[in-house]
Amino acid sequence: MTEATGGIEMEEDTSGKVKKFLYVNRKAPYGTIYALESLEVVLIAAAFDQDVSLAFLDDGVYQVVKGQHTKGIDVKNFSPTYRALEGYDIEKLYVEKESMEARGLKESDFIVPMKIIGAQEMAGLMQSQDVVLSF
Amino acid sequence: MLHTVNKSPTERNALDSCLKHLTKGAAVLLIEDGVYGALKGTSTTKTVEQALKSHPIYALYPDIEARGMQDRVIDGIKLVDYNGFVDLVAEHANVQAWL
Questions:
Q1: Cβ-defined contact of B67 to A28 (cutoff 8 Å)
Q2: B47 touching chain A per CB within 8 A
Q3: What number is the ipTM of this complex?
Q4: Domains observed in chain A
Q5: Euclidean distance between CA atoms B11 and A75, whole angstroms
Q6: Residue contact A103–B43, C-beta within 8 A
Q7: Is A77 on the interface with B (CB under 8 A)?
């Protein structure tokens, strides 16, 4: 059956098991490339229909703050992209309460609705994943 | 002496260490992720406000604005643009960067 394709199986089974992926974001945007790179990987992985969650803790909470205007530093403002994640069925976005509060931020400061959870709940979320990717 | 700090105070201790090493007439300029040190209501605000009593502290506005922090800057911290950055460097005899 695979003779016509030179032995390459054309109808490959891509349905495999759906795994739980967590992207852990702990760095502020712009000062380093981590935040942008994380978002790039999230968008790429979105094509694979996995169970994706995004966590923002420590300085990572700064990534999702409203009102970013980057013209003055001549760098791409990637913060509106967080609003587009919903269109890729990425809807589980978590902010760690302790990190938010230590930075004087509140729920209404974020660019998209975030689930605010405590460190202990965050630990449980991390524990429950198949794959954890850190940025 | 002009001291520049380009790291977030909640990620590295560059700001903390810088503030401990200020001598008479020294000024501090917060740039890049260092501008998170210029914010009200954070875990580092008190330390910065204390230093502000004896030393001028500046923050680079384009970096503040890029991060969406324009309405959160501590009263008394002066905002400068890139020209202001150059002026500060020219006004001081030497510069130390805290990375």
A1: yes
A2: no
A3: 0.92
A4: 18-134 (3.40.1260.10)
A5: 22
A6: yes
A7: yes
